[in-house]
Amino acid sequence: xxxxxxxxxxxxxxxxxxxxxxxxxxxxxxxxxxxxxxxxxxxxxxxxxxxxxxxxxxxxxxxxxxxxxxxxxxxxxxxxxxxxxxxxxxxxxxxxxxxxxxxxxxxxxxxxxxxxxxxxxxxxxxxxxxxxxxxxxxxxxxxxxxxxxxxxxxxxxxxxxxxxxxxxxxxxxxxxxxxxxxxxxxxxxxxxxxxxxxxxxxxxxxxxxxxxxxxxxxxxxxxxxxxxxxxxxxxxxxxxxxxxxxxxxxxxxxxx
Length: 256
Ligand code: SAH
Prior knowledge:
Layout: E1 2-6, H1 17-25, E2 28-31, E3 49-52, H2 58-70, E4 75-79, H3 90-98, E5 103-106, H4 111-119, E6 132-136, H5 149-153, E7 158-162, H6 168-177, E8 185-190, E9 198-203, H7 207-214, E10 220-224
Parallel strand pairs: 1-4, 1-5, 2-3, 2-4, 6-7
Antiparallel strand pairs: 7-10, 8-9, 8-10
């Protein structure tokens, strides 16, 4: 059996209870060494074989998994954050299906959630934005034309940009070309929830200069939108005394 497990954003105790249990039980762990906190491997059992996939190809990863399967061993494939985002798990799952190897996926806390927690931020503020765009700049992996940053920028929704910390100059240009004002609040979150985390609040017009000043070129998320300021929002309807829900009736006395 193979388990794809989300390791969480960085801090060792931000893996799920299920993920930690699977790690304890694993005979083989293949982890994404570039981004997964190696501290998570402390909980593995004696004799567990550990491989860093940062130095391996897909074929080599699959070979390790197949060997473990043939020997009746349990493998954990440990991915950073949640495996559903930029995790390259589909190609692994398809290969396992072709070989009739059973697998399951255990979710994790994505770095975009870790970054919001570190910034003490709610992405979906009433009257500001009710949507979050998770996207990236084009790198070696192509981004479809219809998903350019500048077209998403037209929505002015909260945007969280992955895999783009090394492209801050062009990201800034794209955001401005898409209609964000230079003064729109933004943040660069480096290694959210790791001990060396850095939170840099800035504006869209200051993204590149901030990244350069702070020496940030990788492992960061860029968060953009009026929501980053966490101001001028409307209070929630859900907890409004004058608003009835299936769980709570309006009580005239509690209306201020
Ligand atoms: N599956 C992961 C994303 C993998 S792609 C997730 O759910 O978070 C790798 C990119 O994620 C990095 O380039 C960076 O943009 C972002 N990232 C991963 N961990 C991060 C962290 N702790 N802090 C900030 N960004 C992080």
